[in-house]
Design a protein that fits this description.
Elements (H helix, E strand, L loop, with lengths): L1 H5 L9 E8 L2 E8 L10 E7 L13 H9 L3 E5 L4 H4 L3 H17 L1 H4 L1 E11 L1 H11 L18 E5 L20 H8 L19 E6 L7 H13 L4 E6 L15 H16 L12
Parallel strand pairs: 3-4, 3-5, 5-6, 6-7, 7-8
Antiparallel strand pairs: 1-2, 2-4
Keywords: Hydrolase
Enzyme class: hydrolase
Family: Belongs to the 'GDXG' lipolytic enzyme family.
């Protein structure tokens, strides 16, 4: 399972494939999973997953199991490909632009996708969780050639050990200096603050839930705790679910008897029911 998750190009049996953006001679694709009883006239909630891999690598196949699960629950579920450093020699700012393009494309094509344009959820793991958070809260970094009257802001976010603080500005005492900071600046293609979700916390943001391992050595749990605290202080709905002793990537399909995979799905499902994006299990979808 672990190997298939990382394969690129991804193997996505059962997915419908659409190009959401052409950039630098690359066709960026969405791999779309629809419910069995889907019809074009539906107004379903949608979820778009962004894979992890440090903005350098990774595969949309990482979230195929989650896509299949949510399609089974009545959502139009998608895994997005986006440009990464190792394949396209891009910076993090370009990854963010691609993620925003994906959300905008789904909203623009909501009618043909059978999707409610105000019920688009962004999700992802690690670097992909960062991108999902950016579509919810980071302004600018939009692809210049797109129709900006159509919003690229997702309506909710489900984040799996995401990167949420990319600058230590205003946080020096709380966030230990990471040895990757200088390297990071080169990778970003912009000022760290511009792509740091924490630094764009304000009132009126969409609801989110975050799953994070307390023993994460890649993205320190403390940074996520600070983020969730500041989000709540600003009056936003932000649930942080700590997984005691769990390391980075704990939520992936194929890890540890799939216990965390199952648990994160269950809690994500409950969250979507609570915010009115999904009907409770056993009831027909809204």
């Amino acid at each position: 399972a672990e190997v298939g998750r990382l394969r690129y190009p991804p193997e996505m049996p059962g997915a419908e494939v659409k190009v959401y953006k052409k950039v630098d001679n690359v066709d960026l694709k969405l791999y779309i999973y629809k419910p069995a009883d889907w019809k074009p006239a539906d107004r379903r909630s949608a979820i778009v997953f962004f894979f992890g891999g440090g903005w350098q690598s990774g595969s949309p196949a990482q979230f195929r199991p989650q896509c299949e699960y949510f399609a089974g629950r009545g959502m139009v579920a998608m895994a997005a490909d986006y440009r990464v450093g190792s394949r396209h020699n891009v910076k993090v700012a370009d990854c963010v632009a691609d993620a925003k393009s994906a959300i905008r494309w789904v909203r623009q094509h909501a009618a043909e996708l059978g999707v409610d344009p105000q019920k688009i959820v962004a999700s992802g793991g690690s670097a992909g969780g960062h991108l999902a958070a950016c579509t919810v809260m980071v302004p600018d970094l939009e692809a210049p050639e797109e129709d900006h009257t159509i919003s690229s802001q997702a309506n909710a976010a489900i984040l799996f050990n995401p990167v949420l603080i990319l600058s230590r500005e205003g946080l020096k005492d709380h966030v230990p200096r990471q040895d990757w900071e200088e390297r990071l600046r080169e990778r970003l293609g912009t000022e760290p603050k511009a792509v740091s979700p924490y630094h764009h916390i304000r009132a009126g943001l969409p609801p989110m839930i975050i799953f994070h391992g307390t023993a994460d050595n890649t993205v320190p749990f403390e940074t996520i705790r600070l983020f969730a605290e500041a989000m709540k202080k600003a009056g936003n709905r932000c649930e942080l679910v700590p997984f005691e002793g769990a390391a980075h990537g704990f939520f992936n399909f194929g890890r540890g008897d799939n216990l965390a995979y199952q648990k994160t799905l269950e809690l994500a499902d409950e969250f979507l029911v609570e915010i009115g994006f999904l009907a409770p299990k056993g009831e027909s979808q809204p």
